[in-house]
Write the structure tokens for this entry.
Amino acid sequence: MATQRTSFSKLQRDRAKKAKAAAKRERRLERSAEARTGTDEIEGAEGVDESGEGPISAAELLHEIEVTHQRFEAKLMSFEEFEEKKAELLSRLPVD
């Protein structure tokens, strides 16, 4: 006995899911690009330097870690760069 083929409505649902996922992925990439340009401007204005020197608050460090994750997810940095930057930021995080 032959297997039943998928129905046209199922194919339409699958295509709609894929289109929705692609649109969501685009929105996420656009937001990360906006966040990246926004944080670069803020860092330049405040004089925060990425060399690991100078005081920085825990909230700012956590924000930097979040931005680093977004850059990695957007494939703007390699895994090695991501791990190095994350380790450097986490080492600067004050622990009480």
Q: What stands out?
A: The chain has one domain: 12-45+56-92. The radius of gyration is 21 Å. Residues 8-46 form the longest helix (39 residues). Confidence is low (pLDDT under 50) at residues 40-51.
